[in-house]
Amino acid sequence: MESILNIEISCFANYDIPANPKPVNLLAWLKSDKHFEKQKAIILTEDKAERNKLKAELPAITPSGSFTYRALKNLIRHSRFIQFDIDEKGNEHLGNYMALKSHICNIANVAYCGLSVSGKGFWGLIPIAHPEKHKQHFKALEQAFKKFNITIDPSCKDVSRLRGYSFDPDAYFNHNAKVFTGIYKEPVKKNILRPKFNPNYTSQNKIDVAVNMIHQAPNGEKHNTLLKAAKLMGGYIASGEVDEDAAVIAMGNAILNRDIDNFEAAKKTIEDGIKFGKNCPIEVSIAFHKQLHISINEKSQKDCKNILTPNKDFFSETKYIEIKEHISENWNPDIIELETFFETASLPIHPVNLNPFSTITNISLFIESHIATVKTNNGNRTFLPYLERLKELKNITNKPNL
């Protein structure tokens, strides 16, 4: 079977040795259970320091390329893959955290997704269009995942980032994953056109400009004028020329002195305008007279949305991640029942399809790893999918003519 994962990358003896890598086939590595016994020991180790020590002894790969030495300058060839890493830390708001895998499998760009070595995180691979723009692709992925309430580890923007050995008997493979084309573009920071005025023009004068705009706003234009004044102040605040607290207080007093229908809404307009102005300073030309009249030239202003070149594949085929409340329960009766069943049952001798995304090729390893995981995380509903998969396998095993 042809697979985009059938490529050569580098493998290092362990986390601490950056030299003398050996070439390995990425697809073969992902399917290898060679060190799975060591991985099970890591899953069952509760002490974090000991767990990290055991993890560091395992071999590791650089999924994004082949190297002569583990450093960007020693890259031989990019694999055209970016890895992503999703830890529970930083995603505590996801009550269905361990169900993420089924959601991620809906993304057409994901070529691989599996558990980390500790069984408490996920990692995966996504093919990219432009290897020379690795970081820009990663930042685009980072933004894309955030749209679905998921935070990914920023360390993966490093081309030479290591990925330690981990085997997932229930891993997801998509051998024809679509190439991710999203490119992150840095927002263009605009410079404020400085007015020509007396060098003694002070911070207070600049605040007075905004206050004067509010006072002189004609009826029917109060909201738009307030928003323009707040945007102008945001630019001055961003450049350090105006104190934000002083500006907000002065503008708040100004709206109190006008016939404003909704004071809270006006305050919100000021906050939004200042926030916008701090990120995208408006271009201004100011003519000073005794009355401090002001005219705003916003013809060249553009929306500050220049963040991500969308990738339709990623967004159109992915569902939002549901946020649920954590609930604790006791799974001991279920665990005992499952252990007893699998100890005596005649297990299938051929691969088993649990669902469209999960094919079990090694039944014994699957059962061992899942039993270990549910025992370690008994009652934590984020790990409920492990218990459910064991029950699914039990139901399949009970069926005749397997």
SSE map:
Layout: E1 8-12, E2 22-25, H1 26-31, H2 36-44, H3 48-56, E3 60-62, E4 65-67, E5 75-78, E6 81-87, H4 100-104, E7 112-115, E8 121-127, H5 134-146, E9 163-164, E10 172-173, H6 203-216, H7 222-238, H8 244-256, H9 263-279, H10 312-316, H11 332-344, E11 352-355, E12 358-360, H12 363-376, H13 384-398
Question: What labels would you give this structure?
Answer:
402 residues; alpha+beta; 3 domains; 4-stranded antiparallel β-sheet; 13 helices
Briefly summarize what is shown.
This protein is an alpha+beta fold and about 400 residues long. The protein folds into three domains: about 10-185 and about 305-315, no CATH class; about 190-305, no CATH class; about 330-400, no CATH class.
The strand count comes to 12
Instruction: Tell me the Rg in angstroms.
Output: 29 Å
Specify the overall morphology: elongated
Largest sheet: 4 strands, antiparallel
Order of helices and strands: EEHHHEEEEHEEHEEHHHHHHEEHH
What does this structure look like?
With 402 residues, this protein is an alpha+beta fold. It has three domains: 8-185 and 307-316, no CATH class; 188-304, no CATH class; 332-398, no CATH class. The chain is built from 13 helices and twelve strands. It has helices at 26-31, 36-44, 48-56, 100-104, 134-146, 203-216, 222-238, 244-256, 263-279, 312-316, 332-344, 363-376, 384-398, and strands at 8-12, 22-25, 60-62, 65-67, 75-78, 81-87, 112-115, 121-127, 163-164, 172-173, 352-355, 358-360. Strands 2-1-3-9 form a four-stranded antiparallel beta sheet. Strands 6-8-7-10 form a four-stranded antiparallel beta sheet. A two-stranded antiparallel sheet has the order 4-5. The chain is elongated, with a radius of gyration of 29 Å. The protein starts with 7 loop residues before the first strand and ends with a helix. Mean pLDDT is 79; it is low at 192-201, 283-312 and 315-328.
